[in-house]
Amino acid sequence: MSILSLQNISKKYGAVQALSGVSFDVPKGAVYGILGPNGSGKTTLLGIVTDVLKADTGSFTLFDQPATARQRRQMGTLLETPNFYHYLSGYRNLEIAAAIKQRGHDDIARVLQICGLTARQHAAFKTYSLGMKQRLAIASVLLGDPDVLVLDEPTNGLDPSGIAEVRELVRQLAGAGKTIILASHLLDEVEKVCTHVAILRRGQLLKSGSVEAVISRHDFLELAATDNTALQTALAAYPGCTSAQLNGNVVVAVFNDSPDAAAVNRYLSQQGIWLQHLQLRKKSLEKAFLEITNDPA
Amino acid sequence: MKQLLYTEWLKVKNYRTFWIMLLVAIIMIPAGNYVPAQVMSSRDLEQASKMLGQSPFGFPTVWQTVANISSYMTALFGLMLIILVTNEYTFRTSRQNIIDGWERRQFVYAKLAWVVLLSLIALLTAVLTAVVFGFIYGSQSFSLEGFSYMWYYWLQLLLALCIALLLAVLVKRTGFAMAIFLGYIMMLEQTLVLIIKRVAGPLGGLLPLQTGDELLPFPLVGKMVDSMSTRYDDSVYLIVLLGYIALAIYLVFRKVLKSDL
User: Where does the sequence pass through the membrane (chain B) (predicted)?
Assistant: First the structure.
């Protein structure tokens, strides 16, 4: 089953093409990252899915059905900013959210506890710090324990420990089999949890699919020896090595397939080069992402 | 619908501004009628009204008198509605309500419920005021003759609140919407009515809130003014008034259903 299926969604704001012909599917159980620089159309896309924005063309389904309020009630959604009644307490705001989601009030205490707001639940929303507002928004998303969560920049405004908590929470929810749609420009956030990604740039979908398929990130080796120049020359002659470059005190060797570190080590020793340092590294998502989004094509 | 009303109740239950405004708006109806009732029951004017054959605060004329005077106190109810609706845009909860699981039309239903509720509160207050004043200031016995003026008052309230709702969803900003609403109902429409009446005769009586005013003349004075100017039959004003209510509601739905929130 597709949780969300987008077909050819386009949207313009005046002269600005916010989205053009975006299509992709979010399978059940996926942790789907929507990546893109600021202004790439992530929030517009999620706004259309939640019916607060109208697409100019295209269509989408939720749970394989035409999207209505009934489908939205089965999702917990945080879109862009925490939106609450300023004059009401955190608790009373959650009562309203629960009423609209047609769920009982019995879950409010649990979600406040998860988000660390129990002590301040009866203070007015307008007295909350930015981080607390964001926590309340996450609490509202969790109300009723929905199977699908849509999180648009969930760590906005949080301090480092808050960011770590949210990341851990997302991981737990993913572990519990929830489907999560996560829009973010914080790539380590996505790198650690996502199974799938869609990459947007200036409203265009550049790539989408499983993380491995979208972002080819061959492992590379970091090596060092007494004579790094000799090491470099030896590596360049190794079958499958596409580049060996000196980077500070280490040589970074890239291969056209995942390298076998032991084989490389054996080969170098046969060449009379004894390594002081050998490490198998993965290209960071950030680097891969920048390569994709900076590609002028 | 029950769930919509419950949610709206949660929004205002602890909203002090709302309760204070409601209290003031309710008090203004009997208070606004009290001064004219006192003045007209003074000895000199009592003689005058006896000569004209009816006392404005006695049954059955009291229905018309109170309906007429109360129709000047509608502004505060309109401002309350504007606050309730523009708050949703200020706090961006208009979006959140939809995200969390309302249809857009349910958002409109919830706000239309306020239109009906606030207008019923005002109507009820005006009816009670008329009953009490009728007994205090009149010498005739209770009568429901002329109660239809109360329904005209209610329809004019509904229209004023629908205009407030339309302004709120179009303008979205509280202060701006309030300024336009007050400017329109207090000055602008009356000016337009006078100009159009001068140029095109009774057509000027067909501007939105003026239709209600035409249906709600002040007793005695109204009759004298009427005899001097040409006017349409009451049914025309009634139909046009209902037409404006329908138009305002249609425009509110169109705006909320079609545009980005």
Answer: 18-35, 69-91, 112-137, 149-169, 176-196, 235-253
